[in-house]
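DATA SHEET
Item: assembly model
Revision: 1
Owner: S.N.
Input lines:
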Amino acid sequence: MEKMDKPLTKNIRPDRAFATLADYESTGGYQGLRKAITELSPKEVQQWVKDSGLRGRGGAGFGTGLKWSLVPMDANVLQTRYLVANADEMEPGAFKDRLLLEQDPHQLIEGMIIAAYAIQAKIAYIFMRGEYHLAAKRVENALQEARTEGYLGEHILNSEFNLQIYLHTSAGRYICGEETALLNALEGKRATPRAKPPFPLVSGLWGKPTVVNNVETLCNVPHILQNGVEWYQGLGRGSDQGTKLFGASGRLKYPGLWELPMGTPIREIIEEHAGGMRDGYKLRGFLPGGASTDFLLPEHLDVLMDYEAVAKAGSRLGTGTLIVLDDKTCPVQMVLNLEQFFAQESCGWCTPCRDGLPWTVTLLKDIIAGKGRIEDLDTLAGLTRMLGPGNTFCALAPGAMEPLQSALKYFREDFERYIVGSHAVMESS
Amino acid sequence: MKKQVFEGLSSAEIDEINAEMSHYEDKMAVSIEALKIVQKYRRWVSDECLIAVAELLEISPTQLEAVATFYNLIYRQPVGKTIIHYCNSVTCWMLGSDQVQECLCRHLNVELGEMSADGEYTILPIVCLGACDHAPVVMVGDELRLDITEDAVNEILGR
């Protein structure tokens, strides 16, 4: 029987042995696909997923069914369309897709087959980061099993629907997670983002309509088909539907990853599931959804982890993996670590990002080295605007500015302490 | 060291690259896979190999070099038999990645990116390896290693 409250992780065992095809089928695996292909039209599958309220789990939160419904379906039946699973998990602090890929690869594959059926794609790719070796091995094996069992290939489940799924392992660059950069990477090019419009839904991989969905998003799909829209909607606790993998890392008693209803309060994740802070440490703040989200404070612990509630508190749900700042870690140094990451991972395509991020790093290093001036804080604040939404080619630099702008707001005294300290040294010398 | 004469890509390399081509509309799409296949056999991509792969894919060496220099896991200079990537992203940094790096480099007596004298190891930083609940972490060759301490480093290096 399906564990109804934890559909995504029901096959994941505490010993972390991975689910074989037989394990997956024994808990209802591939029943969602059977229903989609034998009972529903592609349009109906799109509608089911739209009605379920499933939103993209990669960070942006776009409606999944809505995304599928924007793919041009009318024109020519021979028109090539592509589906891509974004398995390029590289957001610092995020460790959710690796679990799904390593422990229950058939769940992703079934989700992909249903998604491909819904948009009538005949070829799909799994774009996986190159460092996920174990995941690549298990997904490749699972693809082979699915081909042998008739879930993939020609005439899937004796229908007219054909699909091939190929695994592409990348060679490392954070920007590949950006969907248009990912398409360039998949075409064998440098992973620089593309101008939008046209959106990939209309003109993506080799100019063909392409849907890019996150791994966790696709893993939700089989359960919606198998158990129905109403069941899925009943899983959320706040304004969003379904469950989500939430994680927490940092100086916590039990850092980890848990499947919980959308809208679970942050306090429950940090204090109950992660057991609170390690002895001798106090909670100072946290990034709710990975490196590219704004800091929140202990006063925000009762915020619900869903798209709207976290946005209202001034941050983003992002990947749903919390990074916790304790009272013995310097927030300025933490921000420096984050900005060094973003500066290194900038693709260099647009000037604000290519030049602004290293400048941010230099200013932060100077401040920490005691060479900062109080005006530097205004310059940093200026950079958060110049590198903010609308001024750059993609979302990398605006994401990079989120922890910085909120650190300047919430931890200003920590920045000033370095500067005041340096002035005191200068005056006394 | 005697300079090796380059005799072109091996038939195994060419076969594997050609097999990957069948997955895509366009030959250039396999550029990253092709470079990784070369690395599987030779650890790194020399100029000669880069030119040979470009010829196979019918693109210019410059186009392929633009790709080779973009991605973190493509090596354009010699690396050790085993690459140890230590994660230096935020949670690992908070929980001691600087000490992990210092410890690795001290034990092997190398700088970052340098090959150890015996040719066995190269130490490189890497972005978040997706195991933040077990920080700090490293990747030894293809294998992820969790909750790294100085003892774990000693064990990894077999000393």
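QC remark: The CA atoms of residues 94 and 321 of chain A lie 5 Å apart.
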